Amino acid sequence: MSGRLQGRVAIITGAGQGIGKAYAARFLAEGAKVVIAEVNEERGESALAELSSAGGENVTFVPTDISDEESTKDCARQTLERFGRIDILLNNAALYYDIDNTDNSPDYLKRVFDVNLHGAWFMSRAVTPTMCEKRWGRIINQSSGAAYIYLMPPEERFRELGAFTYSQTKWGIVGLTKFMAGQLGQYNVLVNCIAPGVTMTEATKKIVPEEFMGMVTMMSAMKRTLEPEDLAGTAVFFASDDANFVTGQVLCVDGGACMPA
Question: What residues contact residue 174 under an 8 Å CB cut-off, 6+ apart?
């Protein structure tokens, strides 16, 4: 039985670990050929070894720094050389595992924007020429529930205006999705966005204090944690023919923790 993505070729950024690797595994199971676009070569090689056991020659690893425009172009070029086409781009990579939410400096804000927001734009610029030429493509951006949740802990005294670094970039992804969808829809290149809640990856376990984990569960209407595999079905839907007339949309996948109008 063929999968919903049979014969499609997908580039998934940041697929060396966490949510990205879960996306890659599900896309392979659905019949896609997958490029692991990962900046960390050790993680990329490890993910390739793990996913090759099921995906065989349908999965490859291309070292990619999404904040470097030339690196994104090289990723697209290598994908075309290996698989002959690019159908799907999933912009999953972001600075998150090592993010420093206490650094409010302008330089650090620019660095995070370069990866989390501009990196998605660079990758999209690299793949859209071939998608538009053949008039079929799917771009799936990844935002976050952090774009919508604005409550901050109380302070004893005011020190400085926060940079809201991660949240700013993830709100930017929402806007980028809509503008890209507006331009690319006429070429049958559809652009949508997933906004995950707090997902139980190793990165989350490192960043979110253990005493807050119970609060994260209570914020969900479903009263359970969100696992990386819970996001994969939404990505498959956006990438498949089932979403043929869906573009410019943001879908929060968080068990009801955030319900934007």
Answer: 143, 147, 193, 195, 250
Q: Are strands 137-142 and 88-91 parallel, antiparallel or unpaired?
A: parallel
pLDDT beyond 90 at 67: yes
In this predicted model, what pLDDT tens digit does every residue of 82-139 receive, in sequence order? 999 999 999 999 998 778 888 999 999 999 999 999 999 999 999 999 999 999 999 9
Phi, psi for residue 14 in degrees, rounded to 5: 65, 30
Query: How far apart are the C-alpha atoms of 174 and 14, rounded to whole Å?
Result: 19
* Strand, helix or coil for residue 102: coil
**Catalytic residue check, 150:** no
Name residue 38's beta-bridge partners: 63
Catalytic residue among 97, 108, 166, 187: 166
For 78, residues 6+ apart whose C-beta sits below 8 A from its C-beta are 35, 62
